[in-house]
Structure formats: structure tokens, C-alpha cells
């Protein structure tokens, strides 16, 4: 493996590796033994050839995939390797979604085995000519990785087959480029994989994980929840999964085709010539087209059975319809390939029963088919059927729609009027990824032979106006959601997902301990010691814990259990809220909660005198108890005592803090106040809130409190009324189970004391 591709990514991203016009760009030696890189770097960091210069700041995108988008062929005369772009590879066309100035670097394996003695030369050539960094896996590792782990474990499992041999499980750990293009199976099947946790955790090291459909994403989130105990939430249309204090974003967007590439093939003269040839060959007949890989899951045998059923149930179709089945060459030579080939024998049976010397109902093309020939069949097919029993995205329907639309150049070559209506019909399996995107297609269960046969009949006999309407609907979607749109959308979401990394800041709070630190206590005590200030802690915790934690702050007011119990200072007794003083309701509620606890493994009931709703918990409380009422009570007591505040600041990030914001905004409009105080409602973090201002994180909250404490010591003319809502507490926000702990309120700067 080219060591620079894995050991020096920072230089690769920053542009320090590739922009060296004076000398050939040097790659270090290759990895021939997993984990051991020979001759790591041939040049010292102090050499003149060191990769430390750059011609400029140029945006770069690095695309890592299982296979490079390249064709490789050894020259028969020189015995040298020759490479060319694989124009059919979507990876190659992702760059169309980036800005023209963006440099794209591809990292992955080659489709051929390169001798160890040639790897250095090949790696240098690919880097210079194609901006590709090859990873040369040892042959035995490549075999275990692809034919063993991927094909024998992941591939059957993701197609809803249980793994047969788990011996190759650790191969995914050795190979850092394992890749699956198929749908993720539900957690009940995925949990049978021996290395299930390793794969999930490997994916969760990403900032953004993309899925083609909602079902795939749902299965992944279910696996993370049930196997790793991770929670996720949706914010502003984006799904975020909390993993070790960082948010892993989930994106759902089907990939598209490359419109320009397909249209360029349609414009070829060879395509027009092939279309005329096929028209003449099947004159007077309607074509049904299938294009599938040599794969037991593509449902080719089921498709043939459906064709046989169609001819049997509708004898009038005999001699008028032809199924052209193109079988793409297999990527490997496993037992599954041989089994798939055996199933194609049904085509011969159908031709023997329903065919004639001049008519074959099934044409099986089992050879490599050039792009122009496929495009010709796409353009002429009355209906395209994709009935895989389980598949990934599958872009065959998209290609069919684009080819049926045609191009002006192709229309001119074939003598078709530009205003001629365009039609297409699709019969697709409900088990493929593109199915949800094609609302005009006829969806079928591929196992239901009768239903598939009837769907084919419906597609062929459907009125032209209906076909045109469905085609126009599909073409609008396919043409606007192409591969460039997909790449651009993912780039934008990736930038958004990584914006926290750019500022090098940590936004997580899960590591904060339950009890406040001595530093926080000292700040609170400083605020409390000034007679002009009234400081309150508002918390969901019980009175005992709060009294123990905050004992040094004798003048501190405490509102425990979300304000049900209030103590104005250490010299006062606890007051109980008059609302819901009768706790007889607990006798009714506790049995109900016990039933849910028994049905929810790992849950528990925490008895309190009164509780409220928080994060990651279900709480039961009487009505009329909230943080907002605490704020109202504090302000009301100040006004009644003849000491109205000069201004009010409220800081918090919890949902319950919104009640506090609203209460303060309402209370300051009280006509009993001589002058309405200034209000600074402030939430923690950027999110929708009733607060007008925001602080970025707990560090900023602590800085704010420290600044107020410093101002208190220096005796300014006006001191603030502050409420630090616990929800994001530098003051001890939550413990490991996410239960809110406590908040702060500071009231001060009254006009009476100022005079």
C-alpha cells in the first residue's frame, strides 16, 4: 500500500503532496505486509525535495473507494502497464459536482494484480497522470477481503442471507477500504455478524454517513441504537447521532446518473446505426428490456418465469413481444456465479415452447455489451424491468429514462421530430434502492410471478398518454438529481458537519461531572456575597444533594425539583409550592410506571418528592410547577420589597428554560415596575429559541459568570440580575444518564440599594 496515502493525509489534503512541478512527486515504498511499511520515506524533511512546498491554496477533494475508476491493461509489445479512465464509473463523475478549480484525488485498489517489483513505478505513474493513489493489498489479503469476507459474509448478509463462514471476519479490520454498495440489513440479521460492532464503530468515525434511502438509514440507526446504545435526533431536517461527545450526521439522498455522459453516447453515430439495426431486427414487435449483473439476487430467473407466465396467460402476446435480457459479466468466479448461469436455462425452455423459426420470445445476451449498444436497446425498449430480490441503488431505470428521452442529435439522425411525445414504462422491484424515487413505476414483489407477469402486461398495454405523463415525471426527477447534484449536496452537508472541527472547539458536555467544581462554587459565592445581588440555583435535583454541593454559598437561594421547593438562603426554611401539595396521585402513577420499567430493560424509577420532564427521562409532576414560575416569584419578591432590578439576564439551553425566557419577558412588562428593566435572554448553542442572544458553549457561560463576579468585586454602579439555567452547566449540567442537575439565578443592582 502506498504509505503516503495512509500516513500523511494531512499533507495530501493541504496540497503539500501533489503540487511539486520541479521534481517528480515521490511516493514512498509500498506495504506488502499488513501493518508494515517498508522504506517509509526516501527523503528527509530537511531535504530540498521535501514535500513542503505548494504552488498555492487550491481546494482538494479526496475520494476513497474500493476500486479506482481506471482500466488497466498490459501492453503486449512493451510489457508495460497502460491505464485509462473508466468512463462508466460514477466515482469519476463526482467531480462534476465540485467547482472547476477543485483538484480531485482518488484512492483505492486496482482491478488487476501488480507485481511487487512494479508497484513503485505504477504508483508514480498513476499519481502523475491520473491523480490516483493506488493501494496494493497483498494477494492473499485481497482474496480474503473480497472473496472471503465481502462475498461470503457481508454480501449474503446484506441480501438477507445468514453468513455461512465467519472465518474471514477479521479481514475487514486489516483492510481499511472495505466497501459495500448494497442495502444494510435490519438489526436482527446484522447482529449475526461476528464483527458487527467493529464495522459500526468504524463507520461512526466519519463526520457524515450517507444512505440512498430512508430504509437503509433506519436500519443503520436501529443497529446503532440496539447494539451500541446510541441515541439520535433530528434537528432542522438533519439527523444527528451522538457518538463519544461528537455528532455524526446522517444524510439520505439517492445517487443519480451522469446526464452528460449518457447523452454523449446517444449522440454517437454508432448508437444511431445500432438503433436502426435493432428496429429492423424486431420490426413489428415490442421490446421488454432487462439489464442485470450475473448475480443470483438480480432475479433474472424470476423474470424469465414471469415472461413465461405472461405468454401463457395472454396468448395474443405471442409473436408480438420480445424480452431482451442483457447479462453483464460477473465480477468474480464464485459458486454463486455458476448457480446464476444454471438458472438461465429457463430461456431456452421458453423459446422452445412459445417460439418459432422466425420468433424467439427471449433473447439472452451473455457477453460484454458496449455502451452504445446498451443505449440503443434502452432507447427502443417499450418497457424496462428490474426485479431484483435484493439490491442496492441500481441505476438501470435512470439510464433507461434518459435514453428514452433522447437527444436532438439522435432525433435528427433517426428522423424523429423534436416535438414527438416521449414515453417509457418501468416495472421495478420494491426491494431495490431506486424504487422510492420512481413514483410512476409499477412496483412489484419479484417473488410473485403472477403479479410480475400482470405488471408487464399493464406496462405494454397502457395508453400512450399515461406513459408520456409517467415518463415526463420521471425524467424531471432524474435530470435534476444527477450525480453532480448528489456530489454537490454531499459536499455542502459535509462542510456543515465539519464546521465545528474548523473552529477547533469541543461542543460536548457529556463529560461534565455531576457536582460543581470548586472554581464554579467560588464564582457563585462571590456573586452571593454582594448584598446587592440575589442568586438562585434552579434544579431538578433533590434538596439534599443541592444543599450538600452548595453549602459554601450561605446566601444562595435554591429552587429544588424544578421549583417545587424553594429556599431563599441558608437562614430560611424550605417553602413548598402550594400547587399539587397532595401527593396521593403517586399511588396511581407508580404502578403504571412500574409496568413500563419492567418492559424496558435497563430502566429504573428514581423516587423524588416531585419531578419534572428532562432529557433522556420520563418524569411525572403535578401541573403548575416550572422554572418560569420560579423566575416570576423571584422578580415579584424583589418588586414587593421595593428593589426592582435594573436589568435581567437569563442564560440556558434546556427546553424547560424556554419557560424561564417567556416568564421574564412577561414579568418585566408589569406596570408595578417604575422602569422596565433591560432583558438579556440568552440560550446556549445556536438553535431556535425565544431568547434573543446566544453563547456558544459552557466555556463562554463560565467566562460570563467570571466577568460578573469580577465586576461585583470592583463595585460598579449597577450589578445584574442573572439566571444561569442549568441545562448546559458549567455548573454541573448532567450526570452520565443525562438528567439535568441545576441552574443559577443572580438578581442584583436594585434602584433602592443604588440610591
UniProtKB/TrEMBL annotation:
Matching InterPro entries: Glyco_trans_20, HAD-like_sf, HAD_sf, Trehalose_PPase
Pfam families: Glyco_transf_20, Trehalose_PPase
CDD domains assigned to the protein according to its UniProt record, in alphabetical order: GT20_TPS
GO molecular function: glycosyltransferase activity; trehalose-phosphatase activity
SUPFAM superfamilies referenced in this protein's UniProt entry, alphabetically: HAD-like, UDP-Glycosyltransferase/glycogen phosphorylase
Record-level GO BP terms: trehalose biosynthetic process
Record keywords, A-Z: Glycosyltransferase, Transferase
GO cellular component, one term: cytosol
Recorded superkingdom: Eukaryota
Family: In the N-terminal section; belongs to the glycosyltransferase 20 family.
PANTHER family, alphabetized: ALPHA,ALPHA-TREHALOSE-PHOSPHATE SYNTHASE [UDP-FORMING] 9-RELATED (PTHR10788:SF14), TREHALOSE-6-PHOSPHATE SYNTHASE (PTHR10788)
The name this protein goes by in its record: Alpha,alpha-trehalose-phosphate synthase 10
Protein species of origin: Hibiscus syriacus
